[in-house]
Write a structure and sequence with these properties.
160 residues, alpha+beta, Alpha-Beta Plaits, five-stranded antiparallel sheet, 4 helices, 5 strands, Mopterin_CF_biosynth-C_dom, cyclic pyranopterin monophosphate synthase activity
């Protein structure tokens, strides 16, 4: 396929869902990451479990997993995918940045990059929602695909 030969358009140059009927089912995995920056006090209160709306990371984790499962309902040309694994993890720098990582796996005819990206985005938005009363200046930044494996195009790893 030529780089400019986009498969998301029909003969009338209108959007369509790509035909994956003839593709083989393979194991596909994607990892995505997003970072949310906040005040030190906000991050400390998240870790102390002292946010008014409850356990921020537990709620964000569930929100991210649910988002991965609902991606085809949010992104118009995404295929519904039978997700076989969705996990969310958190790592912070001990000061003001909280990094969210998702891993999504399936065995199917199309990849799970959009599911992994949607998972970290919704987890970050959930953190924002749960903490906005004390820190409206939070910034969600650097959302990206870290790695994907499987499928016709093979492995992709983001440059460090």
């Amino acid at each position: 396929m030529e780089k400019d030969d986009l498969t998301h358009f029909n003969e009338e140059k209108r959007a369509k869902m790509v035909d994956v009927t003839s593709k083989s089912e393979t194991k596909r995995r994607a990892i995505a990451r997003a970072t949310i920056h906040m005040n030190e006090e906000t991050l400390a209160r998240i870790h102390a479990g002292k946010m008014a709306k409850g356990d921020v990371l537990a709620v964000a984790q569930v929100a991210g997993i649910m988002a991965a499962k609902k991606t085809s309902e949010l992104i118009p040309m995404c295929h519904p995918i039978m997700t076989t694994k969705a996990d969310i993890s958190f790592e912070d720098d001990g000061e003001t940045a909280l990094t969210i990582t998702s891993e999504v796996v399936t065995v199917g005819k199309t990849g799970v990059e959009m599911e992994a990206l949607t998972a970290v985005t919704i987890a970050a938005l959930t953190i924002y929602d749960m903490c906005k009363a004390m820190d409206k200046g939070m910034k969600i930044e650097k959302t990206y695909l870290v790695e994907k494996t499987g499928g016709k195009s093979g492995t992709f790893k983001a440059e460090a």
